[in-house]
Amino acid sequence: MGDVTHEQANLMLKLYDLRREPKLREARDWFAANFHVKNAEDVMRLCPFGSKENTYMRMVAGYWEMVAGIVNRGLIDEDMFFEGTGEQWGVWQQLKPIAGDFRKSFSNPKFLAALEEQAKRFEAWQEKRAPGSIEAMRKFREQIVKQMSERTTQAAVA
Question: What is the pLDDT of residue 2?
Fold first, then answer.
């Protein structure tokens, strides 16, 4: 284990407190349950500009990009951070299919780059400690998305 400072621990707790802020919690809940897109067109359909859903998407992506930047710069011990959360990895998995489209649209090859880099490092960290766990997590996520899609279809039919 690395030497974690009190300052790093306090920053970690502050970031956790921010995750508990009611509007961000609402956005995170919505994002986890609903943001399962394959391309930019799906995003525009699900999260049109000016909508609550667009705000939620931007809140979640912005929060985790900011956190990734903090951790990537060593302001929080990476081991301590990864031990405490994997949500950023799941968020990246949901944003990954559209990151390239948005990088092109915004002419910004660094759009969500901190989160992408952190997701790669989290995968390496996780695999070192629990080989095969990343693939198991991906399969689990696929099952969840499938279940949610089936519920949405059933609700639309009813």
Answer: 59
Long-range CB contacts (< 8 A, 24+ apart) of 2-8? 2/77, 2/78, 2/79, 2/80, 3/77, 4/77, 4/80, 5/77, 8/75, 8/76, 8/77, 8/80
Q: How many domains does the chain have?
A: 1
Mean pLDDT in consecutive groups of 10 residues from the start of the chain, 158 residues: 86 95 97 93 96 98 98 95 94 97 95 98 96 95 82 68
Q: Is 37 a member of any domain?
A: yes
Position 132 in a domain: yes
pLDDT of res. 145: 82
Query: What is the rounded CA–CA span in Å between residue 128 and residue 122?
Result: 10
Distance CA 154, CA 150 (A): 6
Locate 39 and state its tokens: 């391309």
Q: Residue 153: what pLDDT?
A: 67
3-state SS class at 78:
helix
Q: Is residue 1 part of a domain?
A: no
